[in-house]
Specification:
Blueprint lengths: L17 H5 L7 H6 L9 H13 L18 H16 L26
């Protein structure tokens, strides 16, 4: 929850709460955001663990994976890509220049790069 939610123009959900906002059970509607889903806060456990697993393996795994299926706007692949890219923008903002491809999108060379963090 956004600590500044009482201020004019501020959303209820913190703009940096990317995992929360990407869960299908939640939406950006203020009423639903304030109450959450029936499983809150446990609904965030597996998505957070998945991100931590990627983080502990290689930062490049947090980059969004742009596949040919992503070109179909509003398809399930496009939605997943957009959620992953939104997370990457928050999580990798300070190190994106050091990652393979120097972008929020994963390049094909991620497994071929000899330099790692």
């Amino acid at each position: 929850i956004n600590p500044r939610r009482e201020e004019d123009g501020e959303p209820v959900i913190d703009p940096d709460a990317v995992i929360w906002r990407t869960l299908d059970a939640h939406c950006t509607d203020d009423n639903a955001a304030a109450t959450g889903c029936k499983m809150c806060p446990w609904c965030c456990c597996f998505p957070c663990l998945k991100k931590l697993m990627k983080l502990s393996s290689h930062l490049g795994l947090l980059q969004a994976n742009r596949t040919p299926e992503v070109s179909a706007k509003y398809s399930p692949a496009w939605r997943k890509y957009m959620k992953d890219r939104e997370f990457a923008k928050v999580a990798l903002a300070s190190v994106v220049a050091k990652l393979p491809g120097s972008d929020y999108d994963r390049s094909d060379e991620i497994m071929e790069v000899n330099e790692h963090f």
